[in-house]
Amino acid sequence: MTSYPPFKPRFPWVTGDLQTVRNFFAGPRRGPAPQEVLTVDLGDGTGDRCRVAVDRPGNATRRPILLIHGLTGCEGSAYMLQAMEHFLAEGRPVIRMNQRGAGPGAPLAGQHYHAGRSRDIAAVIAGLPADLTADGLVAMGFSLGGNALLKYMGEQGRDTPVMAAVSISAPIDLSLTSKRFRDPRNRIYHKYLLDRMRAETLHPAAQLTAEQARAVREAKDIFDYDDRVVAPRGGFAGAEDYYARNMARRFLPAIGRPTLLIHAQDDPWIPYEAYRGNPQNGNNSVDIDLPEGGGHVGFHGVTGKVPWHLLRSTAFFDAVEGRPVERAKPGLGDQVGAGG
């Protein structure tokens, strides 16, 4: 595994909350239209499909990277656009996966993504053009998408074309995360996410019974939403069953490819406690980097406009692929704004 200079916050983003909301202060920015849009059948008999955006650099010199967004995000979320610009500059084709029922892919699916939809990741990878996967690829998952990616990596072991993976601010213990969101200090975050979850799930293409639609509107908090909406739609007995069966922490010991987990100790959304106690159970394929600061998918550091987690990930991927570690080229990170 690799070492990398520790994260140091850039003034004035000096707390976990400020790091987390940094992109919202920058204002929204619409990313460029993707060069190519793929529609991948998820192959589970539902007829649901997934929209995938593909962008290629002028001179591709490195393996493609698959990017997976977090809760209420999509291909156009701020962190997805930041990562796309950064990795294109590094010479990687970039594949932005809209999870089932998310963003511009919402009309293609009646069901919805959740923290454990790792089979959707497998289906998307299998549906990519052969030239993108012939030499393998790398992957990065953000927040809830990071949990799904880590679950996928644990299920696949070494039987995957994903040669290396990184998760950013992943809720590897879903039950602890649900409790953290219900802390009084997180009430603004909680309301913001719950409102977005409702709007996303009530998309006209969603296949909801009248009872499910009522549960979406009436859910009083994220646990109630997971218990009354996510769990029954996903075939789980309730929220705690959904959390226990899908939390990435239990899949870390089975990961067979180099994998890096990046998580800030001051993340206001995801409790640091989930990462304590050697959750990988001595698995040498898994490395965990826990900087003191960075917030939730923030990491706006003194290194410049490119968030630290992207620079750290570049060093990790370069080491896995046997390339010398280089500083990333400046991107457009400070121009990228709000997103899920």
Short summary:
With 340 residues, this protein is of the alpha/beta class. It is 34% helix and 12% strand. The protein folds into two domains: 16-173 and 247-323, Rossmann fold (3-Layer(aba) Sandwich), CATH 3.40.50; 174-246, no CATH class.
Order of helices and strands: HEEEHEHHEHEHHHHHEEH
The secondary-structure class comes to alpha/beta
The CATH homology group name of the largest domain = Alpha/Beta hydrolase fold, catalytic domain
- Structure summary, number of beta strands: 8
Query: How helix-rich are the residues, as a percent range?
Result: 25-40%
What is the makeup of the main sheet? 8 strands, mixed
Radius of gyration: 18 Å
Task: Give the class-level CATH name of the largest domain.
Answer: Alpha Beta
| Mean of pLDDT | 92
Number of domains: 2
Low-pLDDT segments, ≥5 res: 324-340
What is the CATH topology assignment of the largest domain? Rossmann fold
User: Which architecture of the largest domain per CATH?
Assistant: 3-Layer(aba) Sandwich
**Order of strands across the biggest sheet?**
1-2-4-3-5-6-7-8
Q: How does the overall form come out from the CA principal axes?
A: globular
**Helical run tally:** 11
